[in-house]
Write a structure and sequence with these properties.
single chain, 167 residues, alpha+beta, 2 domains, 3-stranded antiparallel sheet, elongated
Length: 167
Protein backbone atom coordinates (compact mmCIF):
# COMPACT_ATOMS: atom_id res chain seq x y z
CA UNK A 1 0.00 0.00 0.00
CA UNK A 2 1.62 3.28 -1.04
CA UNK A 3 1.10 6.76 0.40
CA UNK A 4 -1.18 7.99 -2.41
CA UNK A 5 -3.66 5.13 -1.95
CA UNK A 6 -3.60 5.80 1.81
CA UNK A 7 -4.59 9.40 1.19
CA UNK A 8 -7.82 8.50 -0.57
CA UNK A 9 -10.60 9.36 1.83
CA UNK A 10 -8.17 10.38 4.58
CA UNK A 11 -6.44 13.61 5.46
CA UNK A 12 -2.92 13.04 6.84
CA UNK A 13 -1.47 14.98 9.76
CA UNK A 14 1.27 14.62 12.35
CA UNK A 15 0.83 14.89 16.10
CA UNK A 16 3.03 16.60 18.69
CA UNK A 17 5.16 13.47 19.00
CA UNK A 18 5.58 13.32 15.20
CA UNK A 19 3.50 10.18 14.78
CA UNK A 20 1.49 9.95 11.62
CA UNK A 21 -2.30 9.98 11.95
CA UNK A 22 -5.06 10.10 9.39
CA UNK A 23 -8.56 11.48 9.71
CA UNK A 24 -11.26 9.56 7.97
CA UNK A 25 -13.21 12.23 6.11
CA UNK A 26 -16.41 10.16 6.11
CA UNK A 27 -16.60 9.45 9.86
CA UNK A 28 -14.30 12.15 11.27
CA UNK A 29 -12.40 9.58 13.34
CA UNK A 30 -8.66 9.73 13.85
CA UNK A 31 -6.86 6.62 12.61
CA UNK A 32 -3.23 5.90 13.46
CA UNK A 33 -0.93 4.50 10.87
CA UNK A 34 -1.03 0.72 10.95
CA UNK A 35 2.75 0.65 10.68
CA UNK A 36 3.62 2.07 14.08
CA UNK A 37 2.84 1.65 17.72
CA UNK A 38 0.86 4.47 19.35
CA UNK A 39 3.81 5.95 21.25
CA UNK A 40 6.55 5.01 18.82
CA UNK A 41 8.57 7.67 17.05
CA UNK A 42 10.11 5.32 14.52
CA UNK A 43 8.13 4.22 11.50
CA UNK A 44 8.13 0.50 10.74
CA UNK A 45 9.95 -0.32 14.00
CA UNK A 46 9.06 -3.74 15.36
CA UNK A 47 10.64 -5.59 18.25
CA UNK A 48 10.54 -9.33 18.74
CA UNK A 49 8.68 -10.29 21.89
CA UNK A 50 8.66 -13.69 23.62
CA UNK A 51 10.40 -16.95 22.78
CA UNK A 52 10.54 -18.60 19.40
CA UNK A 53 9.15 -22.06 18.84
CA UNK A 54 12.67 -23.54 18.71
CA UNK A 55 13.64 -21.96 22.02
CA UNK A 56 10.52 -23.36 23.70
CA UNK A 57 11.23 -26.81 22.20
CA UNK A 58 14.82 -26.77 23.48
CA UNK A 59 13.67 -25.75 26.95
CA UNK A 60 11.07 -28.55 27.02
CA UNK A 61 13.69 -31.11 25.92
CA UNK A 62 16.11 -29.94 28.62
CA UNK A 63 13.45 -30.07 31.35
CA UNK A 64 12.39 -33.53 30.12
CA UNK A 65 15.99 -34.79 30.18
CA UNK A 66 16.52 -33.56 33.73
CA UNK A 67 13.22 -35.13 34.79
CA UNK A 68 14.20 -38.51 33.32
CA UNK A 69 17.56 -38.47 35.10
CA UNK A 70 15.89 -37.42 38.35
CA UNK A 71 13.32 -40.22 38.21
CA UNK A 72 15.99 -42.81 37.31
CA UNK A 73 18.25 -41.88 40.25
CA UNK A 74 15.54 -41.19 42.84
CA UNK A 75 15.01 -44.87 43.85
CA UNK A 76 18.78 -45.38 44.15
CA UNK A 77 19.10 -42.53 46.64
CA UNK A 78 16.00 -43.66 48.55
CA UNK A 79 17.64 -47.09 48.98
CA UNK A 80 20.85 -45.39 50.09
CA UNK A 81 19.03 -43.40 52.77
CA UNK A 82 17.38 -46.63 53.98
CA UNK A 83 20.82 -48.28 54.22
CA UNK A 84 22.13 -45.33 56.23
CA UNK A 85 19.11 -45.62 58.53
CA UNK A 86 19.82 -49.36 59.06
CA UNK A 87 23.45 -48.56 59.91
CA UNK A 88 22.51 -45.86 62.38
CA UNK A 89 20.00 -48.23 64.05
CA UNK A 90 22.71 -50.91 64.35
CA UNK A 91 25.03 -48.35 65.93
CA UNK A 92 22.41 -47.45 68.55
CA UNK A 93 21.61 -51.04 69.57
CA UNK A 94 24.08 -52.20 72.18
CA UNK A 95 22.91 -55.85 72.06
CA UNK A 96 23.52 -56.07 68.32
CA UNK A 97 27.02 -54.61 68.65
CA UNK A 98 28.04 -57.40 71.05
CA UNK A 99 27.14 -60.15 68.55
CA UNK A 100 29.66 -61.89 66.31
CA UNK A 101 30.59 -60.51 62.88
CA UNK A 102 28.49 -63.14 61.14
CA UNK A 103 25.42 -62.37 63.28
CA UNK A 104 25.80 -58.62 62.71
CA UNK A 105 26.03 -59.19 58.93
CA UNK A 106 22.95 -61.43 59.06
CA UNK A 107 21.04 -58.77 61.05
CA UNK A 108 21.96 -56.10 58.49
CA UNK A 109 20.92 -58.35 55.57
CA UNK A 110 17.56 -59.11 57.25
CA UNK A 111 16.87 -55.40 57.71
CA UNK A 112 17.84 -54.70 54.11
CA UNK A 113 15.44 -57.42 53.01
CA UNK A 114 12.63 -55.92 55.13
CA UNK A 115 13.20 -52.55 53.43
CA UNK A 116 13.24 -54.20 49.95
CA UNK A 117 16.78 -53.05 49.26
CA UNK A 118 18.30 -55.06 46.42
CA UNK A 119 21.02 -52.68 45.24
CA UNK A 120 23.75 -54.27 47.34
CA UNK A 121 24.92 -57.81 48.04
CA UNK A 122 26.28 -59.61 51.09
CA UNK A 123 29.91 -59.13 49.95
CA UNK A 124 29.51 -55.33 50.07
CA UNK A 125 29.36 -55.44 53.90
CA UNK A 126 32.72 -55.45 55.67
CA UNK A 127 32.83 -55.85 59.46
CA UNK A 128 35.95 -55.57 61.57
CA UNK A 129 36.52 -55.64 65.32
CA UNK A 130 39.73 -54.18 66.65
CA UNK A 131 40.11 -54.04 70.41
CA UNK A 132 36.88 -52.42 71.61
CA UNK A 133 35.88 -50.72 68.31
CA UNK A 134 33.47 -52.30 65.85
CA UNK A 135 33.58 -50.95 62.29
CA UNK A 136 30.84 -51.75 59.80
CA UNK A 137 31.52 -50.54 56.26
CA UNK A 138 29.12 -50.82 53.35
CA UNK A 139 30.69 -49.91 50.02
CA UNK A 140 28.78 -50.50 46.82
CA UNK A 141 27.95 -48.97 43.47
CA UNK A 142 24.74 -48.89 41.50
CA UNK A 143 24.51 -48.77 37.72
CA UNK A 144 21.42 -47.06 36.31
CA UNK A 145 20.61 -47.34 32.58
CA UNK A 146 19.83 -43.86 31.22
CA UNK A 147 19.60 -43.63 27.42
CA UNK A 148 20.59 -46.39 25.02
CA UNK A 149 24.17 -47.33 25.84
CA UNK A 150 24.60 -44.64 28.49
CA UNK A 151 24.59 -45.66 32.15
CA UNK A 152 24.84 -43.61 35.29
CA UNK A 153 27.06 -45.01 38.05
CA UNK A 154 26.66 -43.99 41.68
CA UNK A 155 29.23 -45.07 44.26
CA UNK A 156 28.34 -45.18 47.96
CA UNK A 157 30.65 -45.71 50.91
CA UNK A 158 29.05 -45.66 54.38
CA UNK A 159 30.47 -46.80 57.67
CA UNK A 160 29.91 -46.70 61.39
CA UNK A 161 32.34 -47.08 64.24
CA UNK A 162 31.05 -48.05 67.64
CA UNK A 163 32.69 -48.68 70.96
CA UNK A 164 31.60 -52.13 72.14
CA UNK A 165 33.64 -52.34 75.32
CA UNK A 166 36.43 -54.77 76.14
CA UNK A 167 36.44 -58.24 74.56
Amino acid sequence: MNLSSMQQGYSLDTTADNSLIAEDQNTSKLVRSPFQKPSSNKLFAKKQEGLSGWAILIIIIMIGGYAIVFFKFFPVYMDHFAIKRVLSNIEEEIDTLKKSKKEIKLTIMKRMSMNSITTMVRDDIKISKKKSILTVRIEYEVRVPLFGHMDGIVHFNDHIEANVGAD
